[in-house]
Amino acid sequence: MRAVKAIILAAGQLKRDYVGSEDSDETEAEELLVLRAIEDCNLPKFTVKDVPLFQAIISDLFPTTKPAER
Based on the structure, what is the number of domains in the chain? Predict the structure, then answer.
């Protein structure tokens, strides 16, 4: 449950930071925020070999959402 809470808190912070910028598709914007929160909370914990597996799981969970390049 701590991992879920960390992702929710990270997504909330990203959303607060996002307020004020304009986007025509609110649903897509929220999906991107959740996707970024999941990546931010999990990617630092993975080894190089785990990253492609994680990305495959993420693409299954968010099939129509492409992560933003950073």
Answer: 1
